[in-house]
Amino acid sequence: MRYQITGKQIDIGEALQTHVKNELVPVMQKYSARATDAQITFSKSAHEYICEVTAHLSTGLNASAKGKATEIYAAFDDCVEKIDKQLRRYKRRLKDHHKDRVEPVELFGASSYILAGEAESHDEEPDSLQPIIVAEMETKIPSLTVGEAVMQMELAGAPVLVFRNEKKDGVNVVYRRDDGNIGWIDP
């Protein structure tokens, strides 16, 4: 398993890197023995340390968690505890998908745009009806089944996931509704 351990304006020492590797490996092996790589980022916000972990599983799914604490080791341990809970919750489904899927998830390129929010004053008319593009970047759209898409959305903690439906070969969307249920858009 490859590790990318970084700190945002924080010096990450050798002891912390060793601790990260020693603690993360058993959790990944317990639930998904085939994790390919993990990205661990440490940062500081006021008096709290923040740790974000994103683990890429061999099935193409990602598990991510965020932990906060007043000490850097405690923030990492909180984050690992959350990943452990997510993977335990989806262990049966992860194993079932390992059996069905012989190749990793196929990813397709797409453009992603960030649009500027509405103007401060609602009384003024906008100069044009074209939205202001703040950022433009490349993103990847995975080819998944609906069940895998729901699991990926929940593992990543995302409110919405755009994916290519393997069964119908079209672009679909799953999202968390306000009532707590999952919505699925199949155009």
Automatic annotation (TrEMBL):
GO terms for biological process: negative regulation of translational elongation. GO terms for cellular component: cytosolic small ribosomal subunit. Residues 130-183 form the Sigma 54 modulation/S30EA ribosomal protein C-terminal domain. SUPFAM superfamilies: Ribosome binding protein Y (YfiA homologue). Keywords: Cytoplasm, Translation regulation. GO terms for molecular function: ribosomal small subunit binding. The keyword Cytoplasm applies. It is found in: Cytoplasm. Interacts with 100S ribosomes. Associates exclusively with 100S ribosomes, which are dimers of 70S ribosomes. Required for dimerization of active 70S ribosomes into 100S ribosomes in stationary phase; 100S ribosomes are translationally inactive and sometimes present during exponential growth. HAMAP family: HPF. This is Ribosome hibernation promoting factor. It comes from Salipiger aestuarii.
